[in-house]
Amino acid sequence: MKKAGLLFLVMIVIAVVAAGIGYWKLTGEESDTLRKIVLEECLPNQQQNQNPSPCAEVKPNAGYVVLKDLNGPLQYLLMPTYRINGTESPLLTDPSTPNFFWLAWQARDFMSKKYGQPVPDRAVSLAINSRTGRTQNHFHIHISCIRPDVREQLDKNLANISSRWLPLPGGLRGHEYLARRVTESELVQRSPFMML
Asked: Which GO terms describe its biological process (predicted)?
């Protein structure tokens, strides 16, 4: 595996534990706005008209949709096609639940298409907001570019990140985090939620 891909996979595991590197804020909106978009707009439009709009992609049989985030030019959200509130849901550790992290990693290509050229793997971040850090009660993974300062901190601590959960020296942006290295082959086989 390329070093850049490995560094990215380290970041997604940190994102699971950190659960809140980025926020998708819907000021003044209700907490089930995303769920309504998925269940009342994207899914019906795909099923009735073979058009995923307003989503970028709808995969009912695979259990997910990809929606262009309102924030940022390259940010997307991957969400289930059924009710999962957030990281606290026991469904995320159920072996029959789709591996949403692997699906989100595959959906990073939407960023490159929008950008008009490839976005390097080492620049991609997958993040999930914690229960207390989110505005929406529909599970979603942010697919976006990693902040340069976070990338720098990870690069600086690469030697300290192993295949075991360990504290990230110095944390990130004033918060303590656990970090673990995950290979792409591990991610294909097992959701990071099952690795915690």
From this structure: CDP-diacylglycerol catabolic process; phospholipid biosynthetic process
